[in-house]
Write a structure and sequence with these properties.
There is one protein chain. Strand 10 (293-295) and strand 11 form a beta hairpin. Strands 1, 2, 3, 4, 5, 6, 7 and 8 form an eight-stranded mixed beta sheet that branches. The chain contains ten helices and twelve strands. It has 341 residues and is an alpha/beta fold. It has helices at 9-22, 26-41, 54-82, 100-108, 110-114, 129-142, 180-193, 205-220, 254-260, 320-327; strands at 90-94, 121-126, 151-154, 166-172, 194-202, 224-227, 246-251, 266-277, 286-288, 293-295, 298-305, 308-315. Bound molecules: S-adenosylmethionine.
Length: 341
C-alpha cells in the first residue's frame, strides 16, 4: 500500500475493534466485560490466565485495548522525545495479550519505515493462547506495516523467563497480574535483554508503586531513566503522599457506552509509566505533573524538575513564556525558568 494512502494506526485499531464488536452479540459482550471487571477487581495473581476464551478476549480487546494503546502511545512519545535517534529494529511485548503495545510501537516508529528502514519486528509473549490468537487476527487484518509480521508466542512470565536480546521491551498493564517474584523476574529479564524498556500501569496509587519498584530495578541494573522523570535519582514523591500519573484521552466505543452508560464521546485513561534506556538520553528538564491551573494573568505549573517537585507561576508579562505555559498540558515537558520570575 502507498504510505500516503495509509490510515492512522489509531483509526485502523478502531475499525478492527469495530468489526470485532459487530460479530459479538451485545448482551454477551457486555456480560463478558462485567465478568472481567469483577475478576480483575478482586484478583490476586493465580497460576491460570484470566482471559480464558474468545469471548473474554474479544470483550477485553473491545473494551480495554483503545485505552491501553493510548497509554502506551503517550509513554512511547516520552521515550521518543528523550531519545529521538532511537528507532528499534526489534521489540518484545511481554504480557502483550491482544497486542495493544505492538500497535503503539508500529505507529511510533512508522517514520523509520518512511526513511527506508523496516518497521520494528515485534514478538508478543503471553500465556493466554486465546489472546494471542485474537491479537494475531486483528494485526493481520490491519494493513499496518509491521503488524502483519508480528510473532505471537505462548510464554509464561516467571523466574525462568528468557527472551532474546532486543532493542525495545514493553510491559503494559501486566505487573498487576503477577506475584512479587514474577514481577521482579520480568523487569530484571527486560533490563538484561533490552536497550530500552517501557513499563506502563494504571494511574492509581498501586500502579504508581509498581512503576517505582520497576524503576528502582531498572536503574539498579544500570539503565537510565528517559521519561517521564527529568533524572534517574530517587523519585521525590514521599511514599503514600501522592502518585505520579498522567492522562490520555480515549474515544469511547459503543461497548463502552453500553457498559458504562452515559453519552460522553471520550474518557480519560489515567496511567503511570517509566521508560529506561541503556544508551545516552536527554530527559525533559522538567515535567508538568498535574493539569495546569489557568488563573487571571498567570498559569500555575506543578513540575517535577531536576531539583525535585515545585510549582512555577508564569505571569502574563512574561510574554512568549506565558503563551507557552498556556499551551502546555499535563504530562508535557517544560523548561523551568528562575523561580518567581
Ligand atoms: C491486562 S492484560 C494487558 C495486555 C496488554 N499488554 C495491554 O496493554 O493491553 C494482562 C496480560 O498479561 C498476561 N499475563 C498475566 N500473567 C501472565 C503470566 N504469568 N505469564 C504470561 N502472561 C501473563 C495476561 O494473559 C494478559 O494478556
Amino acid at each position: 500500500m502507498n504510505a500516503s494512502l495509509r490510515i492512522p494506526v489509531s483509526d485502523a485499531l478502531r475499525s478492527a475493534l469495530g468489526e470485532l464488536l459487530d460479530g459479538l452479540p451485545p448482551r454477551q459482550a457486555a456480560q463478558a466485560v462485567d465478568r472481567l471487571i469483577a475478576s480483575y477487581r478482586g484478583r490476586t495473581p493465580t497460576d491460570a490466565p484470566v482471559l480464558r476464551d474468545r469471548a473474554d478476549v474479544a470483550a477485553y480487546a473491545a473494551y480495554r485495548m483503545p485505552a491501553t494503546f493510548e497509554a502506551v502511545r503517550s509513554a512511547l512519545a516520552g521515550l521518543r522525545a528523550a531519545a529521538p535517534g532511537f528507532a528499534p529494529r526489534t521489540h518484545a511485548d511481554i504480557g502483550g495479550g491482544t497486542g495493544a503495545a505492538s500497535w503503539a510501537v508500529a505507529e511510533a516508529w512508522a517514520a523509520a519505515e518512511r526513511q527506508g528502514g523496516p518497521p520494528p519486528r515485534t514478538t508478543v509473549l503471553d500465556w493466554a493462547e486465546p489472546a494471542l490468537a485474537l491479537g494475531r487476527e486483528l494485526a493481520q487484518a490491519s494493513g499496518v506495516p509491521g503488524l502483519d509480521g508480528v510473532e505471537w508466542r505462548r510464554t509464561r512470565i516467571g523466574p525462568a523467563l528468557r527472551i532474546d536480546d532486543t532493542d525495545l521491551v514493553t510491559v503494559s498493564y501486566v505487573l498487576n497480574e503477577l506475584t512479587d517474584e514474577d514481577r521482579a523476574a520480568v523487569v530484571d529479564e527486560a533490563s538484561r535483554a533490552a536497550q530500552a524498556v517501557v513499563v506502563v500501569e494504571p494511574g492509581t496509587p498501586d500502579g504508581y508503586e509498581r512503576i517505582i519498584e520497576a524503576r528502582d530495578r531498572l536503574t539498579a541494573a544500570g539503565l537510565r531513566i528517559a521519561a517521564p522523570c527529568p533524572h534517574s535519582a530517587r523519585c521525590p514523591i514521599e511514599p503514600g503522599t501522592d502518585w505520579c500519573h498522567f492522562s490520555a484521552r480515549v474515544s469511547r466505543s459503543s461497548l463502552h457506552r453500553q457498559v458504562k452508560g452515559g453519552s460522553l464521546a471520550y474518557e480519560d485513561e489515567k496511567f503511570s509509566y517509566v521508560a529506561a534506556v541503556r544508551f545516552p538520553a536527554d530527559p525533559a528538564p522538567a515535567r508538568v505533573t498535574r493539569r495546569p491551573q489557568i488563573r487571571k494573568g498567570q498559569v500555575l505549573l506543578d513540575l517535577c524538575a531536576e531539583e525535585g517537585l515545585r510549582r512555577e507561576t508564569v505571569a502574563k508579562r512574561e510574554g512568549a513564556r506565558y503563551r507557552a505555559a498556556r499551551d502546555v498540558g499535563w504530562g508535557d515537558a517544560w523548561s523551568p525558568g528562575a523561580a518567581g520570575r
